[in-house]
Amino acid sequence: MSSHRREGLVLSIAVGIVGVTFGVLADAAGLSLPKIIVMSALVFTGASQFAAVSVIDAGGSGLAAVGSALLLAARNALYGPVVAHLLPKSVVPRAGSAQFVIDETTAMGSLPDNDIDGRDSFWWTAIWLWSLWNVGSVIGALLGAVIGEPETWGLDAAFPAAFLALLAPHLRHQPGRVAAFGGAGLAILMVPIAPAGVPLLVAALAVVPGWWVQRKATP
Length: 219
What we know:
- This protein has about 220 residues and is mostly helical.
- The protein has helices at about 5-30, 35-40, 45-55, 60-75, 80-85, 90-95, 105-110, 115-145, 150-155, 160-165, 175-190, 200-205, 205-215.
- It folds into 2 domains: about 5-155, no CATH class; about 175-219, no CATH class.
- The protein contains 13 helices and no strands.
- Helix 1 (about 5-30) runs parallel beside helix 8 (about 115-145), helix 2 (about 35-40) packs antiparallel against helix 8 and helix 7 runs antiparallel to helix 8.
- The longest helix is centred in the middle third of the chain and has 33 residues, at about 115-145.
- The mean pLDDT is about 80.
């Protein structure tokens, strides 16, 4: 097995384990097994799924849950240009491929120094990642009744941890720090007065001052 395939498989196994956590949290939030299966198969982006489930579990509306999920999923649109040369040229297969353009597949597809290995790495990771994420979600959902309350095992910290992991790379730059701390401030202000899920949506407004700082810094 080539090194990029081995790395993709290891990464996929780790993501599959996180999928178990998602399944437990989704079950605790009241989602049925069919809903969990459909969500993991079609949404297939962990941060968005955790966000939606967290909002639902906190009593937020469906609109707030979907809005939070879409907000976090929007970043995947930026990966398209990075991996476009690795995807099929025909319209229908290319559109279907968009389902698998996420953080991990983009990272693995970008590592090799040629398109043949890059394409192999992208699809190898995509297939294993999708499969193990869905298997993990089902296992977590089935274990939910046995495990009991996620808080007992500290699993409720999974979404905040995932969110911080997404945020960390942006803190190296001033625009990212402005957006991050501005968003945190807005969220803290909104939590006592807004319904569940709304603080996360309002926090997204902090990208505006972050964008302004970046624009000022660009010659």
